[in-house]
Specification:
By secondary structure, the protein is mostly helical. It has 19 helices and six strands. It is globular and about 55 Å long.
Length: 420
């Protein structure tokens, strides 16, 4: 276990030098080469371009604090080192994967942030039919060292976040041994909206939004190749994945994972968006003392407005039989029934042991939820309900919420939730 003094020592070590400078991508690459002993940056130009775009945007847009500059420098150097390791291991964004072994019929939980996806993910992770790695496995998937060393490093990261942004882990819980978001696997690729959660980088965001579907399929295909070591030859397992970042990759999801099933989570944007804005404010304060809530509101509104078109493309490439809608109100009214409905619809086995673990996990989640009151308001971020409209619409050919493509909780349960 890490003591508070050890964590404070790490903070001091990161921030002990002068004022923030400019990040130098060439210098950072050299340091990554020296750390790993590797020099091959691969044959995929868009990854190198993405590295340069991100670093440039952080320099020009992010208004880093002294500590934020040092932490960003450390993180980018680590991501570059991990990218070199990926190349050295022969990982390539193959258009035609060699095997589907271990992935089974992957289940992706997609949708806007703050829609109950973390709760649903953790409950589904209790089902033996799924493979959903823990935070420490994902955050240090590409790093060297034993399991003990990598888990200890992940635990250290969480304690540091708790020290620097105590509300962040209450708003969005992360536990070192619990299933977590697989966007950590993609950090070394520098090609994802995830960096915009921690930095105000409109230049990088604009570049990212200008990429074609062919462009964004490259990192997603490489992400698929990264799953091999997690899955091995476990033919009875199905990959379980959840992250907001999958929204960005929705247009290519069906092509990269042709046997995937998708659960689409929805919630009233007037509730989901200010909650997400509040989380981003906590994250960005780690790196900058000049965090503008209005900038966050503008950014989140644009992301939400773009999300409709991303999801629409997923519906074009994934058969309706492989998709299901879950409304936030139904999920919180009866989480266990939601899990049962998902497994039944897609044919995933569910044992009594699974049900027992799900019940225990739900009890723990309920206790943690009651212990923290998350306060947020649209107006704090310069937004109003008129800016957001309604929750994402179902495609015309998908069916109504009462169809077999959707899960609707018992009306009595919904009424009980509405009265809370």
């Amino acid at each position: 276990m890490l003591s508070a003094m050890e964590l404070l020592s790490d903070v001091a070590a990161i921030s002990r030098f002068g004022k923030p400078g400019r990040l130098d991508i060439d210098r950072l690459r050299e340091e990554a080469e020296k750390r790993t002993g590797l020099k091959d940056w691969g044959q995929v130009p868009i990854f190198l371009e993405a590295q340069e775009k991100l670093v440039s945007a952080i320099n020009d847009n992010a208004r880093l604090s002294n500590f934020g500059y040092r932490l960003a420098k450390k993180n980018i150097r680590d991501w570059l080192a991990n990218y070199l390791r990926c190349v050295s291991r022969g990982l390539q964004p193959n258009k035609h994967p060699k095997t589907n072994s271990g992935l089974g019929n992957p289940l992706f939980l997609i949708g806007w942030a703050r829609t109950g996806s973390t709760l649903l993910h953790r409950l589904l992770a209790q089902v033996e039919a799924f493979r959903s790695p823990a935070f420490w496995e994902l955050a240090y998937a590409h790093a060297e060292g034993t399991e003990y060393v990598r888990r200890n490093s992940a635990e250290k990261d969480l304690k540091l976040i708790k020290l620097l942004a105590p509300d962040a882990l209450k708003i969005h819980p992360i536990d070192v041994d619990a299933a977590d978001e697989c966007h950590y696997l993609m950090e070394p690729l520098f090609l994802s909206p995830q960096y915009c959660l921690f930095f105000n980088i409109p230049d990088y965001w604009s570049w990212l939004m200008g990429l074609s579907e062919d462009d964004i399929s490259v990192p997603f295909r490489l992400y698929r190749e990264m799953l091999g070591p997690f899955c091995g030859d476990q033919e009875d397992k199905n990959w379980l994945s959840k992250t907001l970042i999958h929204l960005f990759f929705c247009p290519v999801l069906g092509n990269v994972f042709p046997t995937s099933n998708v659960v689409w989570l929805r919630r009233n944007p007037s509730d989901a968006i200010p909650s997400f804005c509040s989380l981003l404010y906590s994250y960005r304060r780690i790196y900058s003392k000049e965090v503008d809530p209005l900038e966050i509101g503008t950014f989140v509104r644009e992301v939400y407005q773009r999300a409709d078109s991303y999801v629409a493309r997923a519906f074009e490439t994934i058969p309706p039989s492989r998709m299901m809608v879950v409304e936030f109100e139904d999920l919180v009214a009866d989480p266990v029934a939601t899990v049962n409905a998902i497994c039944k619809r897609f044919g995933y086995s569910l044992s009594e042991g699974d049900r027992s673990r799900i019940s225990f996990e739900l009890d723990q989640a309920t206790k943690n939820h009651r212990a923290f009151k998350h306060n947020y308001n649209l107006s704090d971020y310069g937004l109003s309900p008129m800016d957001l409209g309604t929750r994402m619409k179902l495609p015309n050919n998908f069916g109504s919420p009462s169809s077999t493509n959707s899960f609707v909780a018992d009306n009595k349960l919904r009424a009980e939730h509405a009265s809370r």
